[in-house]
Amino acid sequence: MQIYWTKINKIIEETPEVKTYLLDCPENFTWEEGSHTHFALEGFNAGDKPNRSLIRHMSISTLPYEGSIGITTRIREQCSEFKTVLRNLEVGNKIAIFKTHSNVPLKRENKNVYMLSSGVGLATFRPLVLDFLKRGDNVNQMHSLNIDSSKNFLFTNIFKSTPDKKFTSQFVDNRKDYYEAVRHLAADKEDGLFYVVGSDEFLIQNIEVLREQGIKPEQIMLDKHEQQLPKFLSLDLSI
């Protein structure tokens, strides 16, 4: 396993609780849209065993052409040891990244792509939207639906409807409006691909609604390793 040590080159305060950490790109390091990585703080490998409290599984919110590796995360006032350390990091501090992989690359199958997310989960979809806006080949259209009760919506400069690019974006701040919108989107039973990112509870609730509307498991894309998918997409799913 290769561990890439790199430095923070910029910290962006997206909202009062959400920050994006932009990291220098190590030599020979690359990734694709929908990628996640293991993001580790200094000291995580100082002992005989890795200190897992200093490691988190994070989505990469940028694409290689942007020149930096972006990690976007919510840091609340009351937070974990990892987030407490992260909150106090500054430009120039070192972090490590390793085991980078994409579970949700953009499928170009001449289908309609629907991206369902909660809060900062939108960071996973930012690169997919950028990729689509730059090259719309073999994707009929793309729609993003995000729920954030804080009303501090993320990346609104990118997540805005652009009809000429066949991209639409929708933000809601409550569950009733969100699931009503999901049911409306799920009317696309033949040509819809549904990407879902959020907590496990959020995934299960969305899958249940989609399945009730007749969406097949193979139409649902989750940011999970292949061996984890049956747990969420099983036919007898119930909550």
Automatic annotation (TrEMBL):
Listed InterPro entries: FNR_nucleotide-bd (IPR039261), Riboflavin_synthase-like_b-brl (IPR017938)
Full protein name: Dihydropteridine reductase
Residue ranges the record marks as coiled coil: none
Lineage of source species: Bacteria, Bacillati, Bacillota, Bacilli, Bacillales
Source organism, top-level taxon: Bacteria
Alphabetized Gene3D superfamilies for the sequence: Nucleotide-binding domain of ferredoxin-NADP reductase (FNR) module (3.40.50.80), Translation factors (2.40.30.10)
